[in-house]
């Protein structure tokens, strides 16, 4: 998280750097108009308006939002999908307003640094100077009698406070951009359509894979199971059959049936809800995931899961499923799972990290989970806290949707 704060500060300073050319242009045109006569002033107004139009056109260009999304991902640590339709005007305006917000926050940060850094430096250096007065400007009233010795001990303390406040303002600016990025740079309606179409193609590929698995592995497992069952009956009918043979055949039969059941569950996940053999799973079935997990799951559920619309409940189940899969695959020990239904659906998962598998946590599974949540208007925060992996997903609930 410390690295994100540093890169967020870099993003804020980039916004301040982008502001400088605009300040320079305004100053140049202002000074030129102040010194020009009436005819030249009118020409300067025309040039200024043309410059503003060109600048506006550049900021509204389609690639701008794509660059902003890439920068927000890299520097702010924000999860944002690719821009599906950068040429749409809704996408262009989102890029424009994000640019304006960066300029505004950059201006505020530059102002804070220009004031805070010199003031803090002067206050901290005061005890080493042969002075008894603090001067903040050329006016006669901008003087504070600080005295000397212990009577001026408050001056360096004030310098430390000014420095801390300045740093906190810069960090707060980065945090503000981090929170604002999903709302301003998040997917437009056109982007959501592109993401939905991409998701449909993925589901179609998954359905094809499910059919292939059923035709190949499913039939092979069925054949093994039938042969093990028949061999077991032959062994039981014979006299003096080796008990170890009976035990081995029973184990093969039991393992085969379990493998078939697990295969059916995997195929149900791969298939879309209407193509599966069973009804789609919802939040009401999360307890089954906790019970079947290979690790010990401490499951806690709050709120009425039946009140959650079916579409959100189905997606929430898949999110819990993927989170538990990652937790048991890449973690070690017990897993804490909490599902809360209040204003929306909140999912909390944490478990101890397995050092050998920790780098794989941010893979395709987590990326797919974030895309699911983002399409539902929510957000996912996942990361390492000490020696544990924490995942939080929050999904808003609209009771009117099916």
TrEMBL record:
<dbReference type="InterPro" id="IPR036890">
    <property type="entry name" value="HATPase_C_sf"/>
</dbReference>
<feature type="transmembrane region" description="Helical">
    <location>
        <begin position="96"/>
        <end position="126"/>
    </location>
</feature>
<protein>
    <recommendedName>
        <fullName>histidine kinase</fullName>
        <ecNumber>2.7.13.3</ecNumber>
    </recommendedName>
</protein>
<keyword id="KW-0597">Phosphoprotein</keyword>
<dbReference type="GO" id="GO:0016020">
    <property type="term" value="C:membrane"/>
</dbReference>
<dbReference type="GO" id="GO:0046983">
    <property type="term" value="F:protein dimerization activity"/>
</dbReference>
<feature type="domain" description="Signal transduction histidine kinase subgroup 3 dimerisation and phosphoacceptor">
    <location>
        <begin position="207"/>
        <end position="273"/>
    </location>
</feature>
<keyword id="KW-0418">Kinase</keyword>
<feature type="transmembrane region" description="Helical">
    <location>
        <begin position="42"/>
        <end position="64"/>
    </location>
</feature>
<dbReference type="InterPro" id="IPR011712">
    <property type="entry name" value="Sig_transdc_His_kin_sub3_dim/P"/>
</dbReference>
<dbReference type="GO" id="GO:0005524">
    <property type="term" value="F:ATP binding"/>
</dbReference>
<dbReference type="Pfam" id="PF07730">
    <property type="entry name" value="HisKA_3"/>
</dbReference>
<keyword id="KW-0067">ATP-binding</keyword>
<feature type="transmembrane region" description="Helical">
    <location>
        <begin position="153"/>
        <end position="177"/>
    </location>
</feature>
<keyword id="KW-1133">Transmembrane helix</keyword>
<keyword id="KW-0472">Membrane</keyword>
<dbReference type="GO" id="GO:0000155">
    <property type="term" value="F:phosphorelay sensor kinase activity"/>
</dbReference>
<feature type="transmembrane region" description="Helical">
    <location>
        <begin position="12"/>
        <end position="30"/>
    </location>
</feature>
<keyword id="KW-0902">Two-component regulatory system</keyword>
<keyword id="KW-0547">Nucleotide-binding</keyword>
<keyword id="KW-0812">Transmembrane</keyword>
<keyword id="KW-0808">Transferase</keyword>
<dbReference type="InterPro" id="IPR050482">
    <property type="entry name" value="Sensor_HK_TwoCompSys"/>
</dbReference>
């Amino acid at each position: 998280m410390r690295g994100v704060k540093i890169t967020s500060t870099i993003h804020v300073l980039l916004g301040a750097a982008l502001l400088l050319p605009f300040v320079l242009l305004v100053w140049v045109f202002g000074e030129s108009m102040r010194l020009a006569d009436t005819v030249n002033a009118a020409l300067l107004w025309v040039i200024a308006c043309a410059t503003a139009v060109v600048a506006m056109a550049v900021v509204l260009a389609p690639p701008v939002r794509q660059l902003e999304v890439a920068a927000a991902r890299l520097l702010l640590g924000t999860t944002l999908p690719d821009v599906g339709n950068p040429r749409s005007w809704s996408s262009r305006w989102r890029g424009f307003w994000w640019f304006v917000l960066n300029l505004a926050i950059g201006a505020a940060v530059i102002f804070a640094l220009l004031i805070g850094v010199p003031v803090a430096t002067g206050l901290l250096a005061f005890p080493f100077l042969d002075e008894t007065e603090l001067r903040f400007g050329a006016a006669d009233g901008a003087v504070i009698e600080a005295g000397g010795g212990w009577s001026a001990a408050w001056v360096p303390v004030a310098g430390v406070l000014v420095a801390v406040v300045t740093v906190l303002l810069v960090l707060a600016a980065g945090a503000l951009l981090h929170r604002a990025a999903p709302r301003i740079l998040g997917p437009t309606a056109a982007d959501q359509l592109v993401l939905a179409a991409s998701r449909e193609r993925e589901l179609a590929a998954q359905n094809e894979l499910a059919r292939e698995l059923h035709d190949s592995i499913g039939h092979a497992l069925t054949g093994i199971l039938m042969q093990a069952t028949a061999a077991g009956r032959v062994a039981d009918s014979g006299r003096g059959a080796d008990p170890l043979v009976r035990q081995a055949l029973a184990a093969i039969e039991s393992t085969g049936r379990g493998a078939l059941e697990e295969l059916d569950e995997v195929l149900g996940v791969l298939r879309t809800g209407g193509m599966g053999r069973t009804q789609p799973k919802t939040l009401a079935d999360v307890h089954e995931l906790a019970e079947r997990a290979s690790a010990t799951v401490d499951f806690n559920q709050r709120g009425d899961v039946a009140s959650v619309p079916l579409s959100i409940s189905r997606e929430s189940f898949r999110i819990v499923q993927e989170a538990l899969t990652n937790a048991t695959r890449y973690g070690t020990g017990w897993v804490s799972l909490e599902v809360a239904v209040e204003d929306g659906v909140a999912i909390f998962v944490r478990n101890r990290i397995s050092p050998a598998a920790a780098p794989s946590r941010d893979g395709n599974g987590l990326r797919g989970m974030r895309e699911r949540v983002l399409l539902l208007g929510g957000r996912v925060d996942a990361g390492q806290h000490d020696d544990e992996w924490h995942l939080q997903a929050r999904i808003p609930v609209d009771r009117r949707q099916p």
